[in-house]
TrEMBL record:
It comes from Rhodoferax saidenbachensis. GO terms for molecular function: metal ion binding. InterPro entries: HMA_dom, HMA_dom_sf. This is Heavy metal transporter. It comes from the Bacteria. Pfam families: HMA. Coiled coil: none annotated. Residues 1-20 form the signal peptide. Residues 22-89 form the HMA domain. Keywords: Signal.
Amino acid sequence: MIKKTITMLAFAVAALPSFAATSVKATVNGMVCAFCAQGIEKRISKMDATKAVFVDLKKKTVAVEAKEGKTLDEKAIAAEITDAGYDVVKLEQVQKSVEEIKAELKARK
């Protein structure tokens, strides 16, 4: 009985996602148009650890998701945004995918 329960538990745990995606969410001032958003997205997409990028002009938010097995460098992301001419007001790591962050931001409109 115990062996069967342990086996079932092992299969249940294996079926779960291993962990939530790690992303960096930045609040950015100075973005005013689609060209601004596109420029930031293009720069950050070129970074080695980047899987996905989403920029929301109205919410002044940039979300960057890490590739599996990679770690995002928050300082490098902030530097890319700053070098593009924008101000990073806040930077935080979140355990969500870019799609989840995007859905949250759209729900708040």
